[in-house]
Amino acid sequence: MAFDKTEVEKVAQLARLHVSDSEVEEVTVRITDILALIDQMQSVNTDAVLPLAHPLDLTQRLREDDVTETNRRDELQLLAPEVEGGLYLVPKVIE
């Protein structure tokens, strides 16, 4: 599939991009090359290829799950205006 100058100008106008007259030829060539590459990639038979989540077979190193802070909920809830059952009570804002 090849793009011509009028199509590039139309797409640029629809995308609200300013493409000067001197740039139209270069943009046309680049878009045509990109579309040719896409056509080439679509012609490759990938039926026997399994999809990959990642190109390398690596495992994620995880850190130890250590508690670094103490539970201060009761201490902090003493500062709240209203608390019930360990929860902060706030005014209703959505009907």
Key descriptive features of the protein:
2 strands, single chain, 3 helices, mainly alpha, two-stranded antiparallel sheet, elongated, 95 residues, Histone, subunit A
Describe the structure.
It is built from three helices and two strands. It has 95 residues and is mainly α. The chain has a domain at 5-42: Histone, subunit A. Strands 1-2 form a two-stranded antiparallel ribbon. The longest helix is centred in the N-terminal third of the chain and has 22 residues, at 21-42.
Count of DSSP-assigned helices: 3
The geometry reads as elongated
Give the proportion of residues in helices.
Answer: 25-40%
Spans of at least 5 consecutive residues whose pLDDT stays below 50 are: none
Query: Helix- and strand-based class?
Result: mainly alpha
Number of strands: 2
Q: Kindly report how far apart the N and C termini lie.
A: 55 Å
Query: What does the largest sheet look like?
Result: 2 strands, antiparallel
The CATH first-level class of the domain at 5-42 comes to Mainly Alpha
* Average predicted local confidence, pLDDT: 90
User: What's the CATH topology label of the domain at 5-42?
Assistant: Histone, subunit A
Whole-angstrom Rg: 30 Å
Q: Strand-residue fraction?
A: under 5%
Helix-strand layout with pairing:
Layout: H1 5-14, H2 21-42, H3 73-77, E1 83-84, E2 87-88
Antiparallel strand pairs: 1-2
Task: Describe what is shown at a glance.
The chain has helices at residues 5-14, 21-42, 73-77; strands at 83-84, 87-88. The chain has 95 residues and is mainly α.
